[in-house]
Write a structure and sequence with these properties.
With 632 residues, this protein is mainly beta. The protein has 4 helices and 51 strands. It holds the Pfam family Peptidase_M23. Residues 1-22 form the signal peptide.
Length: 632
């Protein structure tokens, strides 16, 4: 938590109300739905509802299909097709079936649809001359009975392998825990596994083993219980994080844990139960987890405390939202309890001994003075090291005021000095002649609109852009524009305007904003030029650059005959925007699988052979076009 606003209490109230409402209706019997793959046989999952994905909570279950495509997918109950879509991204080929009780089942990554919806989709694709198409038929046009085949399992869209993605939602797109229906096809007698926990200091007087920061521990298992090898000494306000998973019988996949409870000295301080997630809030997984640890190290640690700005409806109301305070000279019994949907239970028990912060530790003497700093939530953590034998203070300048920061403790890296930036944003830090600037240009409170401008950028924050107060930093270095870093998540988009010192050469319509992630990765953001600046909308913080894309997509013919023509199509920078195939002057549908960069034709009339001049037009996102011609 950084600053408190009314929004924080509103989120808490809304979460409580929504959690009470967003439950599977009690009048829906557990045997209402048929399992959609190989019903009556034991099935296996590669994903469960609510498990952590990089940008969202997983909304359903992923049912294994024996590593193959083309298994029949059955309607889970009587219903009508209210929506279906064909796409190379997301759920790929997906069907939404609405049932008489108002619930909706979702069948994603299908290889193909069953008739008559397959034929209707094909005719509409030819009518609109587009492969990417979403249809919402009128009620009762396409009816299916429980057990009817509605499609065949596949690997389309964003799927990483053959499987069926299956969801149960309500009319408001609240995604429910499918396994609550206790399908006998899924067996689970295995309790969750705790891989690691972390303790994080959440106040300036917070310490774990006499240090401020975040510290990981590996529990050991004895029988059915976990414990920590060593006693933990701590002080101040703390939060606990955990990295855990659940396995189902005869499957090695690491699935999510449904329920987590944390007690300190017998008092419940935190509880979450992932049973229903509104689709519109799924992205808020970014503040449920330690986002920075995920981005830096690829580890999914779930927070057992609730940050302000977190509006997920999965938490029970507890004192201090999971943040607990350790007093000096106290013994504190901590119990973390994990449960899966089938109530298999895992427990971790350990003790925290309250210990008053004290100046202690040693430092190795460097050859010359050293100064470093980092911002952790509201706390500026300054590490200084001197060649002298006597510890010195760090000088902090805030406006016209100078503060002498006493050392809080010492480590091998140096003395650590702590400062709460809510007392004033520092202009500079001075130690033994070394001066460094924190570079904080603006405090951006969450829940408010704000516009910031300097010589490099203009950033406009909407009321829903942030989860928490942001200490804004901007800079320009060579070709890169930096707005904070990639380790801070955004909930909603920001409007970003870049002001290059010199304009890109050539046609400005080919120059766009790209997001620079790890290594040499580049993500197309787009942008519109006006008065020497380019403006785009993004859901990322971090590094951006302006790049020219003057290279058209490449097209390679793979096959051509009277029945089918296929191509490999790639673009090296801005990405594909559109494509159109004509044979003998008439539109022919091209299906697209982006994972394989593969396009192949599907005829409307299977009896009419492909014959004549073939023209394929492919454009990228900045208008570079390739026209490929051949004959059949």
């Amino acid at each position: 938590m950084k600053f408190r606003f009314f929004a924080a209490s509103f989120f808490a109230f809304f979460s409580t109300v929504f959690s009470a409402l967003a439950q599977i209706p009690a009048d829906v019997p557990l045997d209402y739905f048929l399992f959609p793959i190989k019903p009556g046989q034991q099935n296996f999952l590669s994903g469960s509802m609510g498990e952590i994905r990089p940008s969202h909570f997983h909304g359903g279950i992923d049912i294994k299909t024996d590593g193959v495509e083309g298994l029949p997918v059955y309607a889970a109950a009587d219903g009508y097709v209210s929506r279906y879509k064909q796409s190379s991204y997301g759920y790929g080929n997906v069907v939404y079936l609405t049932h008489p009780n108002g619930l909706v089942t979702v069948y994603g990554h299908l290889q193909r649809f069953a008739e008559p919806i397959a034929g209707f989709m094909l005719r509409k694709q030819y009518e609109y001359q587009s492969f990417e198409l979403e249809l919402k038929p009128e009620k009762d046009i396409f009816k299916f009975k429980k057990g009817d085949i509605i499609g065949y399992s596949g690997n389309t869209g964003g799927s990483g392998g053959p499987h069926l993605h299956f969801e149960i939602r309500d009319k408001d797109d609240v995604q429910y825990n499918v396994l609550k229906f206790k399908f006998p096809e899924i067996q689970d007698k295995i309790a969750p596994t705790i891989n690691k926990i972390a303790l994080k200091t959440l106040s300036i007087d917070g310490r774990v083993n006499n240090e401020f920061g975040r510290f990981e521990f590996v529990p050991t298992k004895a029988g059915s219980f976990y414990s920590l090898k060593d006693t933990v000494f701590a002080h101040g306000q703390l939060g606990l994080e955990m990295m855990a998973w659940d396995r189902l019988d005869k499957a090695e996949n690491k699935n999510g844990v449904q329920q987590v409870d944390l007690t300190v000295n017998g008092k419940l301080v935190y509880s979450h139960y992932i049973d229903a997630i509104p689709l519109e809030k799924s992205r808020q997984v970014s503040c449920h987890i330690n986002y920075e640890v995920l981005k830096r190290y690829g580890k999914s640690f779930e927070k057992c405390y609730v940050d302000d700005g977190n509006g997920l409806p999965i938490y029970s109301q507890t004192f201090q939202k999971g943040k607990f305070y350790i007093k000096p000279n106290t013994k504190n019994d901590v119990v973390l309890t994990l449960k899966d949907t089938y109530q298999n239970t895992t427990t971790l028990r350990f003790t925290i001994i309250g210990q008053k912060p004290q100046f202690a530790g040693t430092t190795k003497k460097p050859k010359k003075p050293q100064l470093d700093f980092e911002l952790d939530e509201n706390i500026l953590k300054v590490t200084a090291n001197d060649t002298a034998s006597k510890f010195r203070n760090v000088e902090l300048f805030v406006g016209l005021k100078k503060y002498n920061l006493l050392p809080s403790y010492a480590t091998a890296a140096g003395t650590v000095h702590l400062y709460d930036v809510r007392g004033g944003i520092p202009d500079s830090i001075l130690f033994c002649g070394i001066s460094k600037k924190p570079g904080i240009r603006q405090v951006v409170p969450y829940g408010q609109e704000l516009s910031y401008t300097d010589n490099h950028v203009n950033v406009i924050f909407q009321a829903n852009s942030l989860y928490d107060t942001l200490y804004l930093k901007t800079s320009q270095d060579a070709d890169f524009f930096t707005v904070n870093d990639m380790f801070t998540p955004l909930f909603g988009p920001i409007k970003l305007t870049l002001k290059p010192k010199t304009l890109p050469t050539g046609d400005l319509s080919k120059a766009s904003v790209y997001y620079a992630g790890w290594g040499k990765s580049r993500g197309f953001e787009g942008g519109k030029w006006e008065n020497g600046t380019i403006t785009t909308t993004t859901k990322n913080l971090g590094k951006f650059r302006i790049l020219n894309d003057t290279t058209a997509p490449t097209v390679k013919l793979l096959m051509k005959n009277k029945d089918v023509i296929s191509f490999r199509v790639r673009d090296d920078l801005s990405g594909l925007a559109s494509y159109k195939l004509e044979v003998n002057g008439k539109f022919v549908l091209l299906k697209f699988e982006h994972k394989k960069a593969l396009m192949w034709s599907e005829k409307l009339d299977k009896k009419v052979p492909l014959s004549g001049d073939v023209v394929l037009r492919v454009k990228d996102n900045v208008g570079n076009e390739t026209v490929y011609k051949t004959k059949i």
